[in-house]
């Protein structure tokens, strides 16, 4: 055995049994994706060339990717008992994620709004949000007091 081969670590990956489950706990969401011909300039209004609705959120996306590896996956989270929540559950189940620990509820679902700048009607939308994440250059002084 040469010195080069004796210093290299040997890694053998064994298949996981059904007793080994990867558990995810965190956010799932519905992403609305819009395709455009080119990246718009600030405040430009351009037409979309296509749209797609897909599952999102860090936990949901991570487990969907892991499902491609044939792993046993389970997710703990909460979704709304509406069209979006049902869509998320269907997509996760189709991807092979165990959704039996997901709670579907019609109340107390947190809503996150990602704010880049103030826009007309923003104060009305903020009444429906639980959390707001602002860009570094966002003027928080322009937010309405709720």
From TrEMBL:
<protein>
    <submittedName>
        <fullName>Ribokinase</fullName>
    </submittedName>
</protein>
<dbReference type="InterPro" id="IPR052562">
    <property type="entry name" value="Ketohexokinase-related"/>
</dbReference>
<dbReference type="InterPro" id="IPR029056">
    <property type="entry name" value="Ribokinase-like"/>
</dbReference>
<dbReference type="InterPro" id="IPR011611">
    <property type="entry name" value="PfkB_dom"/>
</dbReference>
<feature type="domain" description="Carbohydrate kinase PfkB">
    <location>
        <begin position="31"/>
        <end position="107"/>
    </location>
</feature>
<dbReference type="Pfam" id="PF00294">
    <property type="entry name" value="PfkB"/>
</dbReference>
């Amino acid at each position: 055995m040469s010195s080069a081969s004796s210093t290299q670590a040997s890694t053998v990956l064994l298949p996981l049994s059904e007793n080994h489950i990867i558990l995810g706990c965190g956010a799932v969401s519905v992403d609305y994706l819009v395709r455009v011909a080119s990246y718009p300039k600030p405040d430009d209004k351009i037409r979309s060339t296509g749209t797609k609705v897909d599952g999102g959120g860090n936990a949901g996306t991570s487990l969907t990717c892991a499902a491609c590896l044939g792993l046993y996956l389970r997710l703990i989270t909460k979704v709304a008992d509406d069209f979006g929540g049902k869509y998320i559950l269907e997509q996760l189940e189709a991807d092979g994620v165990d959704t039996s620990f997901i709670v579907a509820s019609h109340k107390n679902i947190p809503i996150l709004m990602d704010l880049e700048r103030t826009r007309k009607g923003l104060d009305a939308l903020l009444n429906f949000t639980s959390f707001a994440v602002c860009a570094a250059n966002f003027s928080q002084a322009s937010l309405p007091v709720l």
